[in-house]
Specification:
Two copies of one chain form a homodimer. In chain A, a hairpin with a 7-residue loop joins strand 3 and strand 4. In chain A, 54% of the residues lie in helices and 12% in strands. Chain A is built from four helices and four strands, in the order E-E-H-H-H-E-E-H. In chain A, the strands form two sheets. A two-stranded antiparallel ribbon of chain A has the order 1-2. In chain A, strands 3-4 form a two-stranded antiparallel ribbon. With 120 residues, the first copy, chain A, is an alpha+beta fold.
Chain lengths: 120, 120
């Protein structure tokens, strides 16, 4: 089933469902690599998203201690918690107030195909 | 000034400010290449976005006559008008109901720098 999700496009950055989910997993697991693994994402990719996010806001969203035998640890900063919470709130306002429009758009979407291999 | 815009993420496609603006320009100019030019976009890029959009929905969003000495002509189909109008409506609901959250998020964004050249 088609599902519409929300991405916020800023001047020099974006915040969408993937980054929000990564922040959720970091808060839950206390580890960037464990958060990435939970999403089937490479360690490198997860770190790169965290670095992007840390650079895009007035303060880092994730604090982390690289290395150490335990592999460091990671958690959301106050700014990280605020950004995530604003995003979740917008997402929920969007589903709540946009329900009719979203449903109309979803009805116009091509149903997912088993394989999108017919690429030009 | 930072400005948050809305991108909708579907399972196999996306709809955001760039594509919406392209559809607007196609409706206004009657031409895919003129619409692309108005946005500083190459002919190739504009066509590629239109092809993506035409493939993503149950019917094409843009009808066009390629070639001819006048360069063909393009217009939005009924589906194209419907998709654009649902997107604009969602965008407006988003600004209307999400204003407080958007303002809070914008206040947390790094102010735009003259040059984002400090890339890692």
């Amino acid at each position: 089933m088609a599902k519409i999700r929300l991405r916020l496009v800023f001047d020099h950055a974006m915040l969408g469902p993937g980054k929000a989910e990564l922040l959720d997993h970091i808060a839950a697991t206390g580890s960037i690599s464990a958060a990435g693994r939970a999403m089937g994402m490479s360690y490198k990719r997860a770190w790169s998203l965290v670095e992007d996010m840390n650079a895009a806001y007035i303060a880092p969203l994730v604090r982390s201690a690289r290395g150490g035998s335990g592999g460091g640890g990671a958690s959301l900063t106050e700014t990280g918690e605020a950004v995530l919470s604003h995003y979740r709130k917008l997402e929920s306002l969007h589903s709540q107030h946009g329900a009719a429009e979203i449903e109309a758009l979803e009805a116009l979407l091509q149903p997912p195909q088993s394989d999108m291999s017919e690429e030009k």
